[in-house]
């Protein structure tokens, strides 16, 4: 019989660490962007992630002075103005941001979607990593000896 690479306790800890890292990296804005992708409409989101995404979109709509609840419901259920076949055919041919820009004057939700999908990527996670690295590997810390410590 083969020995497993990790013990059960190690495996549980690794899975917990991966979940913790995922929560650290993925924010609600990412979940909202996934939900607003017309190709997927957030199909890979679990119910908690979907609720978080909906709440983020709703609150952003309020802060922008846009009432989007009805539009958001119609988008998810493909009803009302989102029931048109040509709108969804177009989603397969274009990027999500372009698709929402196309709907700019048709749907109040598009204003919120464009804002979310056009947000610039941030390098905050990378900067945190390098900041931690430089704190650990700075000249002062590396020159410490047992006599000076």
UniProtKB/TrEMBL annotation:
HAT C-terminal dimerisation domain boundaries: 80-147
SUPFAM superfamilies for this protein: Ribonuclease H-like
Pfam family, one: Dimer_Tnp_hAT
Protein name: HAT C-terminal dimerisation domain-containing protein
InterPro entries for this protein: HATC_C_dom, RNaseH-like_sf
Organism: Macrosiphum euphorbiae
GO MF term list: protein dimerization activity
